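User: I'm writing a short report section on ligand binding and want a predicted complex to refer to. Could you take this sequence and uridine 5'-triphosphate and write out the structure as tokens? A short remark afterwards would be nice.
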Amino acid sequence: MSVQVAVIPVAGRGTRLLPLTKCQPKEMLPLGRKPTVQHVVEELTASGIREMLFVTGPGKTAIENHFDIDVELIEHLRVTGKEDLLAELDFEREEIDYFYTRQRRQLGLGHAILCARPFVGDRPFLVALGDSLIGLNHESDVCRRMIDCFEETAADAVIAFQEVPRDEVEQYGIALPKGEAGDIFDLDDLIEKPSRDEAPSNLAVAARYVCRPSIFQELSQTQPGKGGEIQLTDAFRHVLAQGGRIVGLRLRPGEKRYDVGNFESYFNAFLECALADPEYGDQLRESLRKLL
Ligand code: UTP
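Assistant: Sure. The structure tokens for the complex follow:
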């Protein structure tokens, strides 16, 4: 397999979720019974990736603690006769290698990815935003399909896209496909947060990317854009402008992105996740019916 390492940026301040994120990382917000970032790691391992590099920042140590093996907690559950809860900690024992580096200044997503350069070196890699997951209960194999597509097309990058309603295009990076966009399509350009009228399509970047290591060179030369941040989109646009090839892969119908970055999408994501819970979902559905 050509892509063995995932870079998971989790260093953002999450200001859109204040005051919730004042002292806790948004990536640790619960989706159902697990923190968002645990769902993300499970999605990646289901696609065969076992090496995770988190790009962390101030106030994010809860993420590192979460993936540690907590011997004292295990012992406590044993001596207090709560062995039945030990299964909830099985994820600690998965054969996954976790690595952490710090983004020492929050200069944007592009800059966070650049912080992974010394670790990733000359390997291709997958980027998975730590505040978004694709599909519930690791039912999506989009990362696997992106890696296959990357190998088959030998593209410079593969980006996942989701269809969004026309009146939401202003919130996303939007694809300008070359010709008709099928399930897999070549990109002509990427337009960051276009107006509804200017948007060349309704295909929005969906938090997953496969990149060649050459993107690090692009990012190191990318000037800060909006908000003084180094934008990943700008680096991709430069690759395209130089004649590089970037391929878009469309999420399948029913394969949704769950984003915890703002309250509206976080509330929806939490509800869907809780409703899909095999143990508590039906009970919650009943309570909601009564409430509504
Ligand atoms: P966002 O674009 O949602 O930015 O980040 P943010 O700073 O976290 O949130 P707001 O806009 O202040 O509410 C998308 C992903 O990129 C990471 C975030 O942690 C999130 O997982 N990120 C963003 C970084 O790692 N570093 C940054 O400088 C910015």
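A remark for your report: The first helix runs from residue 36 to 46. The chain is about 30% helix and 25% strand.
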